[in-house]
Amino acid sequence: MNPALLQSLITYAAATLIAAGLGGAVLISVLEARGGSKMRARLYGEAKEDAAAAGPAPVLEVLRRLGDRIALRDPTQVSVIRAKLIQAGFMSREAVPLYLGARIVGLAVVVVAGLLMAPWLLSGSRGMTPVLVVGGLSLVAMLGPDRVINARRVKRETEYRDGFPDFLDLLVASVEAGLSLDAGVSRVSEELARRYPNLAEQLQLLNREMRAGRSRKEAWLSLADRLGIEEARSLATMLRQAEEMGTSLGDTLAVFAEDMRTKRMLKAEEKAAALPAKLTLPLILFIFPCLLGVLVLPAAIRLSQNLSAGG
Question: CB–CB of 104/94 below 8 Å?
């Protein structure tokens, strides 16, 4: 068969598949917009209707509807994904549908890009460039959303872990000054708002939960789940045991804060001890060649001049 004819047939087939895919996506969006789902109405209630009445962005609306369909088909993963998104700072009720919808759209973009580049892939006239482009898009679509979420989680967990000893020190000072635990948390959250804004936001949410009537044990456990660090879980367990046993809250917090300060110092000493080993590779690759050049190059120049003069 003529190669030009084969390439034209592949191009037409790819265009037909793309048109069919886009038409199906538009049809599904129209049906979803007209029909709606009773299960989604029970899940999101009136808040979702108010958001729809306010007129959300069309792109976000499409992503949310696609994510809703996936969430309803696999509800066992929704709680796990929601926990990860909350730890990454996405507290909205619609974060899970938007996340799932973004992943589906990313995969669809990769498929469309692969179909568009099929003629170049088969012709081989452009070398490996289309293959690399499609491979890069595939990696971004499959790993991009998870990488973004994990990066945000790590960043926030680092802030939580750095600010938790300071939070405990201020909380101990507030409790020993005569404030209750709830009032102390409210005061400390105001003090930490500049240095650790995300931690202060979580503490303010903890205060609002307890003011709304949630028990202290459940509120602190919820805080530990949102922060995702072991120190918060240990503090929640310690407060629950102190409340059940009737021990002094100030003394318990003071002991726990001292333990946190000790752990921070040990971690700093561990990093300092590991610094020489980490500096070995940069010293060998960057500093040692420069030092060797500075020491040897003048002698080499002088030797070459003497040899030239002697000759």
Answer: no
76 phi, psi to nearest 5 deg: -70, -30
Interatomic CA distance for residues 192 and 173, integer angstroms: 14
Question: What gap in Å lies between CA 126 and CA 238, rounded to an integer?
Answer: 64
Closest C-alpha among 170, 171, 167, 160 to residue 249: 171
Residue 29 near residue 67 (C-beta atoms within 8 A): no
As a whole number of angstroms, the distance between CA 245 and CA 250 comes to 14
- pTM for this structure? 0.65
Phi-psi region of 53 (alpha: psi -120 to 50; beta: other; left: phi over 0): alpha
Q: How far apart (Å, rounded) are the C-alpha atoms in residues 92 and 271?
A: 37
Closest to 267 measured CA to CA, from 227, 220, 231: 231
Three-state DSSP state, 285 = helix
Q: Are 188 and 175 within 8 A, CB to CB?
A: no
Query: What is the sign, positive or negative, of the torsion defined by CA atoms of 131, 132, 133, 137?
Result: positive
Per-residue 3-state assignment (H helix, E strand, C coil) for 100-123 = HHHHHHHHHHHHHHHHHCHHHHHH
Distance CA 44, CA 298 (A): 76
SS3 90: coil
> CA 79, 100, 141 angle in degrees (round to 5)?
130
Taking Cα atoms as reference points, which of 77, 82, 81, 48 lies closest to residue 65? 48
CA pair distance 147, 142, nearest whole angstrom: 9
pLDDT in tens, 139-152: 777 777 788 888 88
Domain ranges of the chain: 3-116, 157-264
Structural contact between residues 224 and 237, judged by C-beta atoms closer than 8 angstroms: no
Percent of residues in the chain assigned helix, strand, coil, to nearest 5: 85, 0, 15
Q: What is the pLDDT of residues 221-241, one digit of tens each?
A: 888 888 888 888 888 888 888
